């Protein structure tokens, strides 16, 4: 009986260590991505929030300013400043919303997306190399883990924001 309890306790400790290692590695990944984004923004003369909004518009756009502010976690007045800078820099255009004449949509200018993609090409190439070491089933599991981790992050963010 004592050996069963000892094995259970050992298994629980190992599991906690592995889970903590994953959390630490995710924190490191987050920091590295923040640093990379900062470098990309510096090369493009964009603030961090500007680059984040460009990414959101590129991925989910065209978006209305309210939807973009919500996704970016920015106050609408702050977002107005971001959009003004992006429009002046030639990164985005504001166009009328075809389904609501009073509203506008923001979209990224395609040629500008290519500039951003070029600066992320080193990471993309490195990630291709990393992924080449894994079997398809492992890649599916990693993708699922990352998707679920991102969802956990969104839920924690929403909770802190009081949503």
From TrEMBL:
Keyword Disulfide bond: no
Any one Gene Ontology molecular-function term assigned to this protein's record: DNA binding
Residues covered by the HTH marR-type domain: 19-151
SMART domains: HTH_MARR
Record GO biological process: response to stress
Keywords: DNA-binding
Matching Gene3D superfamilies: Winged helix-like DNA-binding domain superfamily/Winged helix DNA-binding domain
Domain of life: Bacteria
InterPro entries associated with the record: HTH_MarR-typ, MarR/SlyA-like, WH-like_DNA-bd_sf, WH_DNA-bd_sf
UniProt cross-references to Pfam families, sorted A to Z: MarR (PF01047)
Protein name per the record: DNA-binding transcriptional regulator, MarR family
């Amino acid at each position: 009986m004592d050996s069963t309890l000892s094995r259970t306790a050992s298994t629980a400790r190992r599991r906690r260590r592995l889970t903590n290692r994953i959390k630490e590695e995710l924190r490191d990944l987050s920091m590295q991505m923040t640093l990379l984004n900062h470098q990309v923004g510096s090369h493009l003369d964009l603030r961090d929030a500007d680059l984040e909004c460009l990414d959101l518009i590129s991925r989910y756009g065209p978006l209305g300013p309210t939807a973009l502010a919500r996704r970016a976690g920015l106050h609408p007045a702050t977002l107005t400043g971001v959009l003004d800078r992006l429009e002046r820099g030639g990164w985005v255009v504001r166009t009328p919303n075809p389904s609501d004449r009073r509203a506008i949509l923001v979209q990224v200018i395609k040629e500008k997306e290519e500039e951003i993609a070029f600066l992320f090409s080193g990471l993309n190439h490195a990630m291709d190399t990393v992924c080449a070491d894994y079997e398809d089933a492992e890649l599916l599991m990693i993708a699922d883990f990352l998707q679920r981790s991102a969802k956990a992050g969104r839920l924690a963010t929403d909770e802190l924001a009081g949503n």
